[in-house]
Amino acid sequence: MSSPAFPTRRLGVLLVVSGPSGSGKTTLCRQLADAGEVVYSVSATTRPARPGEVHGRDYFFFSEPEFEMKLAQGEFFEHARVHGNLYGTLKSFVKQNLENGIDVVMDIDVDGAAQIRACDDELVRRCHADVFILPPGVESLKERLANRGTEDGETLDLRLKNALTEIAHWPEYHYALVSGSRAEDLERFRSLLLSERMRVGRQI
Amino acid sequence: MSSPAFPTRRLGVLLVVSGPSGSGKTTLCRQLADAGEVVYSVSATTRPARPGEVHGRDYFFFSEPEFEMKLAQGEFFEHARVHGNLYGTLKSFVKQNLENGIDVVMDIDVDGAAQIRACDDELVRRCHADVFILPPGVESLKERLANRGTEDGETLDLRLKNALTEIAHWPEYHYALVSGSRAEDLERFRSLLLSERMRVGRQI
């Protein structure tokens, strides 16, 4: 009797995460990465390395001409200039992991997430899922922003306005994670990874 | 400042589960139902109630004419005749729960799952996700079937053949859960429910 094909191998999950400041998205990504469940996507940047930062771990550090050349060669999924420095996500890093069945989390803003969503690379389309992490309502958002302090010099009103502008994009994502306790958030976030690993379209 | 719409309410998840005999699918469904996380879909049947069985809990018990009338009125998602008795899933029961944000699990065979997948009811389409639970390979399947005994009088060879015929359908499902330990299976199964609850298409 010949046996039907059982799933034997799978591609990695590319889990893209967005959310306003104070949503806890970076912590959630780090927790999964620290547990060895995913690889945290390392960004490339033209900003100089700070003491202690390591090329390939914290960032891929490139000179402006290097970054521009890679950009011209289509080596970035998405990029943006922030405070004069270029930031972006290298395709090669992400795709190598996905092909090897290694899950990648990527913590990017709504513009970056939209660029990844529009990506026409077949591997990326198969592996991609995105989630928006948001507070249960405006009052809770205000509290979280207030607790976060004002280290970036923006007023609370401006930060609230920016956060609400970002939050308006949640319906564009596959999933919306409405924050509860930290433990609940981590369980739900991890469940996205576990379930996306089982998606038939990623089995080989 | 006007606030963007936050998700405030969601539809229930309709999680349809199939898998060969011995896959543990019924146990997984019961575990989630016993934990109060989901409602187990109650089937309708024309077979007589056994002692202790309760209408509305174990089955909806109908006479053959009652069942046929409901069938003619399109009140079933799916139905089949097994050993002379009719079995089916009532739309009203499932849809009421989904509309109220209550998650429903449904343990049905590949034919029933295909009928639900082809259902053109908009609510069902929005709420529906399905998973096939399968052993890691043929050897493991043989062991599970052998351990299950032969209470239904089929030979092991026939049961293996039937199981392999069912398993060939896994690529038609959204998710494939390849069995590991019981604890792993429950965690993965529950993660499907948690993540599908977050799906943007089910938020209101």
In short:
2 copies of one chain form a homodimer. Chain A is α/β, with parallel strands linked by helices.
Provide an overview of this structure.
The structure is a homodimer of 204-residue chains. Chain A has 204 residues and is α/β, with parallel strands linked by helices. Chain A has a single domain, classed as Rossmann fold (3-Layer(aba) Sandwich), CATH 3.40.50. In chain A, the strands form two sheets. Chain A has a five-stranded parallel β-sheet, sandwiched between helices. A four-stranded mixed β-sheet of chain A has the order 4-3-6-5. The longest helix of chain A has 16 residues. Chain A is globular, with a radius of gyration of 18 Å. The mean pLDDT of chain A is 92. At the A-B interface, helix 7, strand 9 and helix 8 of A face helix 7, strand 9 and helix 8 of B.
